Amino acid sequence: MKSNQILQDLKQKYPHEPEFIQAVEELLEDIAPMYDDNQTYQDLDILGRVTEPDRMFSFRINWEDDKGNIQVNRGWRVQFNNALGPYKGGIRFHPTVSPSVLKFLGFEQIFKNALTGLPMGGAKGGSDFDPKGKSDNEIRRFCYAFMRELAPYVGADMDIPAGDIGVGGREVNYMFAMYKNMSREFTGVLTGKGVGHGGSLIRTEATGFGLVYFLKNMLDTANDTITDKKVLISGAGNVASYAAKKVIELGGKVITLSDSVGTLHDAEGFSQEKIDWVIAQKASRKPLKDYVQKFGGEWLEGKRPWAIKADIALPCATQNEINATDAQNLVDNGVKYVAEGANMPSDADAISIFQNNNIIYSPGKASNAGGVAVSGLEMSQNSVRQYSSFETLDKQLQDIMKNIHDACVEYGTSDDGKIDYKKGANIAGFSRVADSLVNYGIL
Ligand code: NDP
Question: Which atom of ligand 1 is nearest to the CA of 132?
């Protein structure tokens, strides 16, 4: 079957999964010609197989709040594809989590993990639990309850979850503790653990640092530099904070961060100390806008960062946070590079605007792969029961991001020398998975 027919079938089958369909369309835009030319892929229905999760399940999570009331949430795990290695992908706690969101994230994760060159399949999971406004005790009880339900279906060689929005080191540690307790085994079943019990020394920094290493490769390739460039970053969580730290270290000027309430604009630029303050503020779940009282700058309530003059944009908050209007604002305000730290932060119209206006654009599945890459290294460390130093891991991360960048260039450069990073990432990632599926036959 040709790719277009498969897409039509998916649209009919899953009309209520817009994010998932968006992720499939975004891939097909680039791989369709190659796929429709490959009779073996079609005979083995590789696309039909790769767009349907191996399995997906949901479960009920009961937990007790601080007032002694029983709360009920829903949890899911999508084990999308394990052609290249055990299922691997984060867990998100956010009220917007739904089967469609998790399927889009799991689908992207297959190709992102393939791009790292490490043996990892694709998965994603989460819950509609909202950590906002919850006490530490409530979060701990919820994490225990979540893992009590998920534990039978994950394992160090089967499915290795990690963090994502609303799930950081603290939550991973609670989930790891419950798994360890239930299984009576100390194995690398989760990544992003505390360093004292098997975690990688650079996992916290990895996605943000990796994003900026990827950006640096893009700039080098364009004979440009990050020095003194004005950088817009959205989000104020894990990815945004460490991306900001690395940009500042390399001589760029970060002028925004944001959260779900608004945007923080500091025209003087954030310093490492200011970012440390933001990290501490978010960790204690206090408002980002308090920054203005302490350091100055302006708080733009209800606004995204994309209407501010700058050179580079790094969206690091969530999916579909840049639409056509935002993209046009970026173009009009002089932005030349967009590298995605979040998963699918730019919608399809925004991507077209970038591409039609010669913005050099890289998709999340390439530029944010540093997090899962270091997770892959954490899995290796746990298997051999050893630790690597920060410096060793940082070097490995830089090498992996360069390899991903170079694969995008190899598969995404057209005859006129123009590099389409999205096309390169999609073709390189898809081919690796598809070729393995071909080798497996029809299982
Ligand atoms: P965090 O929970 O640490 O931070 C998320 C940030 O995004 C917060 O500042 C949050 O604001 C903001 N945000 C969340 N939802 C929205 C929304 N609907 N509108 C505006 N802002 C929003 O998550 P991460 O930093 O870990 O993840 C950010 C993105 O990066 C996600 O797309 C994730 O999938 C992706 N990613 C993360 C990786 C990782 O290693 N952590 C790896 C690869 C990709 P508020 O606090 O107000 O909710």
Answer: 48
Question: Are β-strands 262-265 and 360-362 bridged in parallel, bridged antiparallel, or unpaired?
Answer: unpaired
Please give all residues whose beta carbon lies within 6 A of any atom in ligand 1, as ranges: 163-166, 207, 235-240, 259-261, 316-318, 321, 341-343, 368, 371
Q: State pLDDT tens for residues 359-387.
A: 999 999 999 999 999 999 999 999 999 99
| Residue 216 is among the residues annotated as catalytic for this protein | no
pLDDT at 337 over 90: yes
Contact between 366 and 408 under an 8 Å Cβ cutoff? The reply is yes
CATH of span 204-362: 3.40.50.720
Q: Which residue has the tokens 């991973």?
A: 172
Among candidate residues 224, 223, 243, the one with its CA nearest the CA of residue 232 = 243
Domain with CATH 3.40.50.720 in the chain: 204-362
Instruction: Report pLDDT for 217.
Output: 98
Strand partners, 263: 258, 300
CA distance 413 to 406: 10
Query: How remote is the CA of residue 129 from the centroid of ligand 1, in Å?
Result: 15
* Helical packing angle, 18-36 and 348-356, nearest 10°: 50
Q: Rounded to whole angstroms, how far apart are CA atoms 282 and 293?
A: 16
Containing H/E element for 91?
A: strand 87-93
- Counting from 1 in the atom list of ligand 1, the atom nearest the Cα of 364 is 44
CA atoms within 13 A on the CB side of 363: 32
| CA of 94 relative to ligand 1 center, distance in Å | 10
Cα of 130 vs centre of ligand 1, distance in Å, is: 13
Q: For residue 274, with 0-12 CB atoms within 10 Å meaning exposed, 13-18 middle and 19 or more buried, which class applies?
A: buried
Q: Is the pTM of this model over 0.70?
A: yes
pLDDT band at 443 (very low <50, low <70, confident <90, very high): confident
- For residues 322 and 287, the answer to whether their CB atoms sit within 8 Å is no
Q: Which CATH number fits domain 53-183: 3.40.50.10860, 2.60.34.10, 3.90.380.10, 3.40.630.10?
A: 3.40.50.10860
Structure tokens at 203: 């996992």
Cβ count near 280 (within 10 Å): 10
Average pLDDT, the chain: 98
